[in-house]
Amino acid sequence: MFNLDNKVVIVTGSGSGIGRSIALGLAQAGADLVITELPERLETANETARQIRSAGRRALVVELDVTDVGGIGKMIEQACDYFGRIDVLVNNAGVIIRKKAVEVTEEEWDRVMDVNLKGVFFCCQAAGKVMIRQGSGKIINIASINGMIGSAERSSYTASKAGVINLTRTLAAEWAEFGINVNAIGPTYLLTPLTESLFAQETFKEDYLRRQPIQRIGKPEDLLGTVIYLASSASDLVTGHTVMVDGGWTAV
Ligand SMILES: NC(=O)c1ccc[n+]([C@@H]2O[C@H](COP(=O)([O-])OP(=O)(O)OC[C@H]3O[C@@H](n4cnc5c(N)ncnc54)[C@H](O)[C@@H]3O)[C@@H](O)[C@H]2O)c1
Questions:
Q1: What confidence tens digit (pLDDT) does each residue in 168-201 have?
Q2: Structural domain boundaries of the chain?
Q3: Following DSSP, what letter does each residue of the chain receive, concatenated?
Q4: Which residues does the UniProt record annotate as the domain Ketoreductase (predicted)?
Q5: 17 lines ligand 1 (CB under 6 A)
Q6: What residue's CA is closest to ligand 1, atom 3?
């Protein structure tokens, strides 16, 4: 049920942090990977690919800025030319700008929306066209607890992640007839390059442990069970759902 042998999975932004961890976890579960990363960070993608190959799976590295819609189409083409199909898309690439709402510039707002929401939509669209032809596919969008709850100094980020959660529901409704499941994951704060500076602040760490019933700092590996479940046939009747992997943060 949880077997991913020879499944072809694309993970965007998989040169570091959560993306790399997801790619490696899926490879260990039997999948072959398309690793995408920003052109200036290709070295990190090559390192992820090296680790996947040493786990005995295949890996293709493709450079991609998810804000470049033409580039997304080319990445999907390359993936199909190389592997012949796309079974799973994990939309992981994301950015955050932490700033008081009154100070956010138009450029900053657009940047976060372009990467976190527009990028996710057009990756879904391009992979979705292939999956519709195949009559099967799984899409997993990495949202956040910040898509479910508000959070000071994260206006563009929370709006983008809430958008991802409702986009997930809409695509699930639209593509169910083609055998495509579209789900999301809402992680709590996990220790990655994106949050290193936050966890370095004692007050943030204390507040985190106070708000989260499971009182430990989350790691990217905490998402792997959910990712494998949503990528596998074990979740065939699950769609439009956001699984909160948040230590109970949004439950209380
Ligand atoms: N770390 C957390 O606490 C946390 C919590 C909830 C959700 N998330 C989400 O998880 C995802 C991964 O975050 P992370 O913590 O691993 O961050 P990270 O900064 O380590 O990784 C983000 C990756 O996305 C890539 N990326 C950034 N902009 C891109 C673009 N325009 N095109 C293509 N790739 C791009 C980066 O190069 C990087 O590899 C993000 O969507 C983030 O919002 C993170």
A1: 999 999 999 999 999 999 999 999 988 999 999 9
A2: 8-192+220-245
A3: ----TT-EEEETTTTSHHHHHHHHHHHHTT-EEEEEE-GGGHHHHHHHHHHHHHTT--EEEEE--TT-HHHHHHHHHHHHHHHS---EEEE-------B-GGG--HHHHHHHHIIIIIHHHHHHHHHHHHHHHHT-EEEEEE--GGGTS--TTBHHHHHHHHHHHHHHHHHHHHHGGGTEEEEEEEE--B-STTTHHHHTSHHHHHHHHHH-SS-S-B-GGGGHHHHHHHHSGGGTT--S-EEEESTTGGG-
A4: 7-188
A5: yes
A6: 189
